[in-house]
Each structure stands twice: as structure tokens, then as C-alpha cells.
Amino acid sequence: DADVTQTPRNRITKTGKRIMLECSQTKGHDRMYWYRQDPGLGLQLIYYSFDVKDINKGEISDGYSVSRQAQAKFSLSLESAIPNQTALYFCATSDSQNSGVGTDTQYFGPGTRLTVL
Amino acid sequence: KQEVTQIPAALSVPEGENLVLNCSFTDSAIYNLQWFRQDPGKGLTSLLLIQSSQREQTSGRLNASLDKSSGRSTLYIAASQPGDSATYLCAVYGWGKLQFGAGTQVVVTP
């Protein structure tokens, strides 16, 4: 079984709808991340969480919110989806005593392909 | 602002040839650099992580070098195989941010 799972894997929705993407991990890691990837571009960090009580904005958090329900679960919500949020969304986890995003190896889920019409 | 560039965007080589993938970054004040492999439908897999104090890292057929002063990293894959076909991304960590390049799509033909 995959260590980092994302649901749904594909989603088509309409402008203005609320969407939730879910991420679960069995690696026992304390850190979790949400990224988006657009064609021809690198990944951009949306939000990250270093433990259950810690939530931080990434570089492109506008239009998104997150919830860390448990150490193993981290959800990303689009409150009112818009077409330019069409992208591939990745969840990732890591486990390190170092500080900061990117100081440790991250393990990625398979991605959710979201299309907003 | 850190900018990470990977050129070329796509590369095709015959099986058995060595692969050389390039990554350049504009700010040399980095903490580490990572190389990832991305397969369709399977997300990203970390291949190698090079700390800023290191010059290279090796894992099997993979070797990554880091030259902070020139803002460059190179990923070498020896004796390429069709299973090496994927997109390879580099990412640098510095100033509290992880910045990804857009990737190089590699096709290894039998």
C-alpha cells in the first residue's frame, strides 16, 4: 500500500464550487505539505504543517485553506473554485529535526488532477 | 528572488547512453539541493539530496554534483535504460523556501 495517498485522484468541477482534496499518510511523519503544479512550471508550495497545531502559508495560499485533522491527515480546500486553479495538486510528508521547508527529504503522494470549468 | 532553471525541457537518448541533466539557480545562498523523479500518476520520488557543504552525492547509477559558486548542479545517470524515462526536477532550499525547477522530460529509446 502507498505511504501517502490522495483522494480523489481526478476531479472536474465548476466555477464557484467548494472542493476538498484529502491526503493521508502512514509514514508516521509530523510534517505535511500541499503543492500545485502547472504545465511547464515547477511545484509551488500552497500550505504546510509541521505538526497538528501548526499551519503555515506557502507562496500561493490565496484562494485555498487547509485543515490538519490528525497527524496522518491534511486536507486542502478551495472555497470557491476558479478556472486558474486547474492544476495537478500534490501532498507530501517529511520527518526531520531540522527547521524549515526543504531541509529534509519529502515523500510525495500520486497527485490529484483538478479541472475547474 | 531565487530562480531555478532546467535546460533542456526535454531530452531523448538511446538506451545505454549516459544522461546529463542540468539545473541552475540564481542565488548561491542555498541550504541544500534535491533531485526528484516524476512519473505520470505516481507523484515525485526523491533521488538525491546534496547539502550545501557537499560537492556530490551518489546512489547506484546516479551521481549529482553541486557547484554553489556557479549556481549549478548536474545529475548524471550512467548507462541509461528505458525505465529511466521520466521527468526529472531539481529543487533548491534557501531563505526558508523550497524552489523547484520546471523539470527535464527524458525519453530513453530501446
Uncertain stretches of 5 or more adjacent residues of chain B: none
Helical residue percent band of chain B: under 10%
Q: How does the overall form of chain B come out from the CA principal axes?
A: globular
Structural class of chain A comes to mainly beta
**CA radius of gyration of chain A:** 13 Å
Largest interface: A-B, 22 and 25 residues
Number of helices of chain B: 0
Radius of gyration of chain B: 13 Å
Could you tell me how far the N terminus lies from the C terminus of chain B, measured between alpha carbons in angstroms? 41 Å
Give a structural overview.
The complex is a heterodimer of chains A (117) and B (110). By secondary structure, chain A is mainly beta. Helix content of chain A is 0%, strand content 54%. Chain A is built from no helices and 11 strands. In chain A, the strands form 2 sheets. In chain A, strands 2, 4, 5, 6, 9, 10 and 11 form a 7-stranded mixed beta sheet that branches. In chain A, β5 and β6 form a beta hairpin. Chain A is globular and about 40 Å long. The relative contact order of chain A is 0.33. Chain B is mostly beta strands and 110 residues long. Chain B has no helices and 11 strands. In chain B, strands 2, 4, 5, 9, 10 and 11 form a 6-stranded mixed beta sheet that branches. In chain B, strands 1-3-8-7-6 form a 5-stranded antiparallel beta sheet, with no helix packed on it. The termini of chain B are far apart. The mean pLDDT of chain B is 93. The interface between A and B is medium-sized, with 22 and 25 residues.
